[in-house]
Design a protein that fits this description.
The chain has a domain of about 70 residues. It is about 40% helix and about 0% strand. The chain contains five helices and no strands. The chain is elongated and about 70 Å long.
């Protein structure tokens, strides 16, 4: 495979930098020694929000994980679950009322639902609703 040509730093040339800048590789060709692409950090982490947007998001959050950074995760969901999430989002926004409405996001709903399900799984193991949904017939019945 041929190596990509390096692109010049045109902006510095146009703005008249004092020293000519060395040629830099195109961002898509940055690779580590082993050939895997180099991680490029986003310019703004999702946990760092500015001004009004940050205030809106804080309205819907628990105090327990306000400082915890958020990461983007992508999962496949059935169409019916996505539609139910949309309905729940609208219903919860109505329940929240005007001052807190903008803090109710689908991400918040999914995060809190997962926290509840995982908490129950940790406490009840195979008897949790999540375990019974995923592993029907594999859980022991408790009598008592």
């Amino acid at each position: 495979m041929t190596e990509r040509k390096r692109t010049p730093d045109i902006l510095s040339d146009l703005l008249g930098s004092a020293q000519p800048s060395p040629l830099r590789p195109h961002p898509s060709t940055l690779e580590q020694q082993d050939g895997t692409p180099e991680y490029q950090q986003d310019s703004k982490m999702s946990g760092q929000q500015d001004g009004a947007q940050g205030a809106k998001e804080d309205l819907g959050r628990d105090e327990t994980n306000v400082d915890e950074p958020k990461v983007k995760a992508t999962f496949y969901l059935s169409k019916s679950v996505v539609e139910a999430l949309e309905d729940a989002h609208l219903a919860l926004r109505r329940m929240a009322g005007a001052p807190r409405r903008s803090g109710v996001s689908k991400s918040l709903i999914v995060e809190k639902a997962l926290e509840l399900a995982l908490e129950e799984l940790a406490l009840e193991a195979s008897q949790s609703r999540l375990a019974r949904k995923i592993t029907p017939g594999n859980h022991e019945e408790t009598v008592g």
